[in-house]
Description:
The protein contains ten helices and no strands. By secondary structure, it is mainly alpha-helical.
Amino acid sequence: MSKGFFRRWALATVVLTLAVIVLGAYVRLNHAGLGCPDWPGCYGHITWPNQQHEVDHAESIWPERPVEAPKAAKEMAHRYLVGILGPMIVVLAVLAWRRRREPNQPWLIPLLAVAVVIFQAVLGMWTVTWKLKPIVVTAHLLGGMSTFALLFWTWLRVRPWSPGVLRPVALRPWIILGLVLVGIQIALGGWVSTNYAALACPDFPTCQGSWWPTLDFNEAFVLWRGIGVDYEGGVLDGPARAAIHIVHRIGALLVSAYLLWLGWRLWRSGGRGWASMLVGLLLLQISLGIGNVIFGLPLPLATAHNGVAALLLGCLLALLAASRAERLPS
């Protein structure tokens, strides 16, 4: 098995993971997260109820969850895609382990990706059985982003780097800090989404016509509220949702300022391509975030907001990989 094959397989897992992240966001934003009230099947089916007698039988078992075929189809499409991705990551880990004695071959990171995917499956089950509990759904989102990061890092470690590529070694600590800040902002964005707080502030740059409306921070960030609560549609009142939204906006302002500064440093050090990519993705993400507020969270913009967050994370990972003067096995 050649190094080229391993590199292509790693890239395929990265692309598929990004597709899973985007599709997962699409399912969540379509309010289809409980399109199937059980797991891993759907109303006891490998697919979902299609025939009338199947629908009648499903609704007799789950009377509180009438069958909505379009939502069930979206939820199962996401599960099928994950069902393909999981074995692909296992194969990648096996290939990495077999090549572990070769120079610069990462093997620990692919094994860690397998562990994350297994935990992701558990979170996926809890997402359904615990009825969209925000802490679980947010953790599921972060698990998807972590999987993407691990697989992308694996690919970055085995791809050939041109001798002319800028290696911003001096900026490495600042790139790592950027990764941390973007990770925190993604978590805040997940908390906004899973608590249905995206439209708590329907105007921009103000919120509910005020720079600082009535906010309830005590309720906004309660992580655990017990088992048995149905969180579909959210359970928080307006001030708590607005508090979550405002914190996400403040986070966006701080992270944007930092990444613009990092882009400026890259530009000055000769990395104009890196700077353009980083700032371009940042400006696109800002535009999508503002557009979601102004236009009332349209599905295409909201879904793209999740995908671009992953790309921004990937851009910083690529910068970190380029900053390594020597690629050491991980």
